[in-house]
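SAMPLE LOG
Freezer: B-3
Tube label: C17
Construct: single chain, 176 aa
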Amino acid sequence: MSLNSRAIAALGAVVVVGAATVGTSVAIAAGQTEHSSHRATLTVGNSSIVADPLCWNGGSPITEDLQEQCQDKATEALKNGTLPTRDVVGSDRVGVGVSPNVAETGWWAFTNGGSTGQGGRFSLFSYAKGPTWSGSQQANKVLNASGKTLVTVVEGDKNSDNPVAVWYFQLNTQDS
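STRUCTURE (predicted):
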């Protein structure tokens, strides 16, 4: 049986909704009653991690000044090891999902890995509106040689100069 793109998208939606449900349950258990509907999920193999955006301007486009602050914040978090992180081996599959409201705006995802022919950047998901799941890619294609690969997820309109939200995840390459 082969899965068509509609079935794959539906499966991705189930993953994202399930992750959001777990995130809501954790927030309620921690005494937090406000639910964040702006989430991205990084899936590596059979495990996932859900995160709120590192940079978000309340749903408005992030100005150039705020983008610079966001990059500084991401660099600091990467240096301090405080980004959401997952270990990965080359044989794992890597994918990204977003909340339905993020998908309505439009989004894309990429890593700072990939071959030099790709400019040292690998696209996990090209810009689209609607889909909530990137599908999964073979990890050895998306990783960079340093052993630490940055995954960036961006919400925004393709025709706009400024993103609405940005998420960062870190992949730590492990020996197979």
